[in-house]
Amino acid sequence: xxxxxxxxxxxxxxxxxxxxxxxxxxxxxxxxxxxxxxxxxxxxxxxxxxxxxxxxxxxxxxxxxx
Length: 66
What we know:
Radius of gyration: 12 Å
Distance between the termini: 40 Å
Number of helices: 1
Low-confidence stretches: none
CATH class: Alpha Beta
Order of helices and strands: EEHEEE
CATH architecture: Roll
Largest sheet: 5 strands, mixed
Number of domains: 1
Helix content: 10-25%
Strand order of the largest sheet: 2-1-5-3-4
């Protein structure tokens, strides 16, 4: 299936989850948020939230700086 992750098209296998897609774009262990089709998905639901063809996922990583 094809989804959009951070504005870029990605091909994922059928049955992929938010957790699978997040793993494609970051290995950060914390400070990561995800929004699926403009709805925030809590980290505890990433593995249970299946993706569908044409979904839009935004993955945000917090950065520290001055």
